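Annex B. Sample input.
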Amino acid sequence: MKAKPERPLNDRMRRVCELVVQGVPAGRAYEQAGYNARGDAADQNASQLLRKPKVAVYLTSLRHAAAKNAEFGRDDLIGFLVQIIKTPVSEVGQDSRLAQRVKVDDTGMVIEMPGKMLAAKQLAEIMGWNKPAEVKVDLSDKLSDIIGRIRSQ
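Annex B, continued. Sample output.
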């Protein structure tokens, strides 16, 4: 018996994958994509659909693309901390990425930004600029306990 050739992805299959990547549970994504099954049946059908090789490949490619877009690495963090340190407070508006909190009341608008000193401290730590912390360890009591136990055996 010949294996049935797998059909290409249709719009509903692609939509299920897109919704799943956005965080919608598989069964609900299956329903929202326009399939007729609901509840437990939708959950089961979605599970079967997502295991199909072509669907799984498409889902994986969407997840990789989403992860790449969401990356925030070490260099990004260093750049952000430097921006906090170097940006004058007067240049931080309510739409700035440095605006941590915006409060509007009768007296006007107050915009808070991350602390410059804390950012400098974190940057120094990340860059390894701080003197290594000295740690003193006293093992004399522990060592004598160990030696005593070994001798008593």
